[in-house]
């Protein structure tokens, strides 16, 4: 991707948005089923662009991700905000540079803070379906294996060749997020903090893959977010990451067929204390269902976060 392509997308948008959106400093990437936030925006102030019409944007292909960029005023403080409703994933066949293209366009529009939301599966057995997790670190197998959005020629105008990513998720923004969650009435036990593991998908994890990710320190797993966060941090955008837990991930070993046959034939009696967790396997309907149920809370939380941020700007 050339600098000129990012610039032409930003120019296309700037030419069409009214003056008050030239001061847009906040962006929100809406994950699976979380695009409802834009319905809370006053209709008369809303401006929408289909991704397909913006230079350099590829089209989103996932059900539940409609694919548009929306400008509007968010919350009681009427913070000018740009929303990505729908995002791009590696599993759709896009390159990681295509997936993260919009983030640099947001930078060129003036965005300083990015709220990234997603749906994810829980690896940590204490995390319940419906909990909201504030991300405090990440782990990307795809990134470590070479699918980094920063691979290739560095665009120095955006950031450095070698990026320090150890403080990707801004501490003060995380504190504001917890304050917002409590303020809108989300129970302290339903809002968590932890590590997001990024996988390329589209398969949900095998049991062994899930155990591997858990052993590596991850609390949840999903197929998005990290590439966007890397690009945002590269160009100095502050990041808040919010994960909605939509399903448990099976980490237990499955039934042992050999033990069962030996027992059936009376050769040896072996107690198999592993649970058959077949019924717990992740499915996309479950992800969408949980998102729909809990999305309202997540939306209230993001709105309140925007108000708190307007009152307490984070340098
Ligand atoms: N794994 C990966 N991605 C996901 C999951 C999951 O269990 N749930 C929602 N997105």
TrEMBL record:
InterPro entries in the record: Nucleoside_phosphorylase_d, Nucleoside_phosphorylase_sf, Purine_phosphorylase
Alphabetic keyword roster: Glycosyltransferase, Transferase
Top-level EC class: transferase
Binding site for phosphate: 32, 65, 87-89, 119, 224
GO molecular function: inosine nucleosidase activity; nicotinamide riboside hydrolase activity; purine-nucleoside phosphorylase activity
Residues of the Nucleoside phosphorylase domain: 25-258
Binding site for a purine D-ribonucleoside: 205, 247
Catalytic activities: a purine D-ribonucleoside + phosphate = a purine nucleobase + alpha-D-ribose 1-phosphate
Known EC number: 2.4.2.1
Gene Ontology, cellular component aspect: cytoplasm
Gene Ontology biological process terms from the UniProt entry: guanosine catabolic process; inosine catabolic process; NAD+ biosynthetic process via the salvage pathway; nicotinate nucleotide salvage
Pathway field: Purine metabolism; purine nucleoside salvage
Function, in words: The purine nucleoside phosphorylases catalyze the phosphorolytic breakdown of the N-glycosidic bond in the beta-(deoxy)ribonucleoside molecules, with the formation of the corresponding free purine bases and pentose-1-phosphate. Cleaves guanosine and inosine.
Family indicated by similarity: Belongs to the PNP/MTAP phosphorylase family.
Protein name: Purine nucleoside phosphorylase
Organism per entry: Syncephalastrum racemosum (Filamentous fungus)
């Amino acid at each position: 991707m050339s600098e000129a392509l990012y610039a032409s997308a930003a120019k296309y948008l700037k030419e069409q948005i009214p003056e008050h959106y030239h001061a847009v400093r906040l962006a929100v990437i809406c994950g699976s089923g979380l695009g409802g936030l834009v319905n809370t925006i006053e209709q008369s102030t809303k401006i929408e662009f289909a991704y397909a019409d913006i230079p350099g944007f590829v089209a989103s292909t996932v059900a539940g991700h409609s694919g548009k960029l929306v400008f509007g005023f968010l919350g009681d403080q009427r913070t000018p905000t740009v929303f990505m409703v729908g995002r791009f994933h590696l599993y759709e066949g896009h390159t990681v540079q295509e997936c993260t293209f919009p983030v640099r366009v947001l930078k060129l529009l003036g965005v300083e803070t990015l709220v990234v939301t997603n749906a994810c599966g829980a690896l940590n057995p204490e995390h319940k379906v419906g909990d909201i997790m504030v991300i405090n670190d990440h782990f990307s197998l795809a990134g470590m294996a070479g699918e980094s959005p920063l691979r290739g020629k560095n665009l120095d105008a955006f950031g450095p060749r070698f990026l320090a990513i150890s403080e990707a998720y801004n501490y003060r923004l995380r504190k504001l997020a917890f304050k917002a969650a409590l303020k809108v009435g989300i129970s302290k036990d339903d809002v968590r903090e932890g590590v997001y593991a990024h996988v390329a998908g589209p398969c949900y994890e095998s049991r062994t893959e899930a155990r591997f990710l858990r052993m590596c320190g991850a609390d949840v797993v999903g197929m998005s977010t990290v590439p966007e966060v890397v690009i945002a941090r590269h160009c100095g955008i502050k990041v808040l990451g919010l994960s909605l837990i939509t399903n448990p991930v099976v980490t237990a070993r499955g039934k042992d067929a050999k033990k069962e046959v030996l027992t059936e034939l009376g050769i040896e009696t072996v107690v198999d204390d592993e649970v058959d967790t077949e019924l717990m396997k992740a499915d996309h309907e479950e992800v969408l269902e949980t998102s729909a149920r809990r999305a309202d809370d997540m939306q209230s939380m993001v709105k309140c976060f925007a108000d708190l941020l307007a009152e307490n700007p984070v340098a």
